[in-house]
Amino acid sequence: MKEIEQIYFNDFGVAFHWKKEKKVLKNKVQLVFKETGFYLSKEELNFFADTIDATCYEVNANCDACEFKRKCHKFLLKTPVQQIDLAVSVNELLQIKDLVEGTIFQIQLKDYLDEICQN
Protein backbone atom coordinates (compact mmCIF):
# COMPACT_ATOMS: atom_id res chain seq x y z
CA MET A 1 0.00 0.00 0.00
CA LYS A 2 1.21 3.49 -0.81
CA GLU A 3 1.97 5.85 2.02
CA ILE A 4 -0.25 8.83 2.73
CA GLU A 5 -0.21 12.03 4.77
CA GLN A 6 -3.66 12.49 6.27
CA ILE A 7 -5.06 16.01 6.11
CA TYR A 8 -8.53 15.69 7.65
CA PHE A 9 -11.20 13.09 8.38
CA ASN A 10 -14.68 12.76 9.81
CA ASP A 11 -17.11 9.86 10.26
CA PHE A 12 -18.00 10.05 6.56
CA GLY A 13 -14.63 10.22 4.82
CA VAL A 14 -10.98 11.17 4.70
CA ALA A 15 -8.71 13.56 2.83
CA PHE A 16 -5.00 12.99 2.33
CA HIS A 17 -1.94 13.62 0.20
CA TRP A 18 -0.19 10.68 -1.43
CA LYS A 19 3.49 10.10 -0.73
CA LYS A 20 5.89 8.90 -3.40
CA GLU A 21 9.46 7.98 -2.56
CA LYS A 22 9.01 9.56 0.89
CA LYS A 23 7.99 12.91 -0.65
CA VAL A 24 4.50 14.29 -0.03
CA LEU A 25 2.69 15.10 -3.29
CA LYS A 26 0.91 18.30 -2.28
CA ASN A 27 -0.31 19.39 -5.70
CA LYS A 28 -3.51 17.34 -5.31
CA VAL A 29 -5.74 16.04 -2.52
CA GLN A 30 -7.28 12.58 -2.44
CA LEU A 31 -10.82 12.88 -1.06
CA VAL A 32 -12.58 9.59 -0.24
CA PHE A 33 -16.17 9.22 0.96
CA LYS A 34 -19.21 7.09 0.21
CA GLU A 35 -17.19 4.51 -1.78
CA THR A 36 -16.07 7.39 -4.01
CA GLY A 37 -12.66 8.95 -4.49
CA PHE A 38 -11.75 12.28 -6.04
CA TYR A 39 -8.17 13.36 -6.74
CA LEU A 40 -8.49 17.16 -6.77
CA SER A 41 -6.25 20.18 -7.12
CA LYS A 42 -6.66 22.99 -4.58
CA GLU A 43 -8.64 24.97 -7.15
CA GLU A 44 -10.98 22.03 -7.76
CA LEU A 45 -11.36 21.51 -4.01
CA ASN A 46 -12.32 25.18 -3.57
CA PHE A 47 -14.75 24.91 -6.49
CA PHE A 48 -16.32 21.84 -4.83
CA ALA A 49 -16.67 23.79 -1.56
CA ASP A 50 -18.44 26.62 -3.41
CA THR A 51 -20.75 24.13 -5.14
CA ILE A 52 -21.58 22.50 -1.80
CA ASP A 53 -22.34 25.90 -0.24
CA ALA A 54 -24.67 26.78 -3.12
CA THR A 55 -26.39 23.40 -2.82
CA CYS A 56 -26.79 23.81 0.96
CA TYR A 57 -28.35 27.21 0.40
CA GLU A 58 -30.80 25.80 -2.16
CA VAL A 59 -31.67 22.84 0.06
CA ASN A 60 -32.28 25.04 3.10
CA ALA A 61 -34.32 27.53 1.09
CA ASN A 62 -36.47 24.78 -0.38
CA CYS A 63 -36.80 22.76 2.82
CA ASP A 64 -38.42 25.48 4.90
CA ALA A 65 -41.76 25.16 3.12
CA CYS A 66 -41.53 21.39 2.61
CA GLU A 67 -43.37 18.90 4.80
CA PHE A 68 -40.39 16.49 4.82
CA LYS A 69 -38.00 19.04 6.43
CA ARG A 70 -34.60 17.74 5.22
CA LYS A 71 -35.66 14.11 5.38
CA CYS A 72 -36.22 13.63 1.66
CA HIS A 73 -34.53 10.74 -0.05
CA LYS A 74 -31.74 12.05 -2.30
CA PHE A 75 -30.80 14.90 -4.58
CA LEU A 76 -27.90 15.54 -6.97
CA LEU A 77 -24.71 17.27 -5.85
CA LYS A 78 -22.51 18.60 -8.64
CA THR A 79 -18.81 17.73 -8.38
CA PRO A 80 -15.66 19.26 -9.86
CA VAL A 81 -15.82 16.50 -12.48
CA GLN A 82 -18.33 17.89 -14.97
CA GLN A 83 -19.65 14.46 -15.98
CA ILE A 84 -20.27 13.30 -12.39
CA ASP A 85 -23.04 14.27 -9.98
CA LEU A 86 -23.59 12.45 -6.68
CA ALA A 87 -26.95 11.36 -5.27
CA VAL A 88 -26.77 12.38 -1.60
CA SER A 89 -29.09 12.93 1.33
CA VAL A 90 -29.06 16.17 3.32
CA ASN A 91 -27.09 14.47 6.11
CA GLU A 92 -24.50 13.20 3.59
CA LEU A 93 -24.28 16.69 2.09
CA LEU A 94 -23.48 18.15 5.50
CA GLN A 95 -20.84 15.47 6.13
CA ILE A 96 -19.24 16.15 2.73
CA LYS A 97 -19.35 19.88 3.48
CA ASP A 98 -17.51 19.31 6.77
CA LEU A 99 -14.94 17.07 5.07
CA VAL A 100 -14.19 19.54 2.27
CA GLU A 101 -14.16 22.64 4.49
CA GLY A 102 -12.05 20.90 7.14
CA THR A 103 -9.59 19.81 4.46
CA ILE A 104 -9.29 23.33 3.03
CA PHE A 105 -8.82 24.77 6.52
CA GLN A 106 -6.07 22.28 7.40
CA ILE A 107 -4.24 22.89 4.11
CA GLN A 108 -4.38 26.67 4.55
CA LEU A 109 -3.27 26.40 8.19
CA LYS A 110 -0.30 24.18 7.28
CA ASP A 111 0.70 26.48 4.40
CA TYR A 112 0.51 29.48 6.72
CA LEU A 113 2.57 27.82 9.46
CA ASP A 114 5.15 26.61 6.93
CA GLU A 115 5.46 30.17 5.62
CA ILE A 116 5.90 31.65 9.10
CA CYS A 117 8.47 29.02 10.09
CA GLN A 118 10.61 29.86 7.06
CA ASN A 119 11.11 33.42 8.29
Query: Can you give the mean pLDDT?
Result: 89
Strand content: 25-35%
Report the radius of gyration as a whole number of Å: 16 Å
Tally of domains: 1
Q: Calculate the terminal CA-CA distance, rounded to whole Å.
A: 36 Å
Strand order of the largest sheet: 1-2-3-4
Q: SSE order, as H and E?
A: EEEEHEEH
Largest sheet, in brief, is: 4 strands, antiparallel
Shape: elongated
Uncertain stretches:
none
Number of helices: 2
What's the arrangement of secondary structure elements?
Blueprint: E1 4-9, E2 13-20, E3 23-33, E4 36-41, H1 42-63, E5 75-78, E6 85-88, H2 90-118
Antiparallel strand pairs: 1-2, 2-3, 3-4, 5-6
Helix pairs in contact: 1-2
List the defining traits of the structure above.
single chain; 119 residues; two-stranded antiparallel sheet; 43% helix
Describe the structure.
The protein has about 120 residues and is an alpha+beta fold. The chain has one domain. About 45% of the residues lie in helices and about 35% in strands. α1 packs antiparallel against α2 (about 90-119).
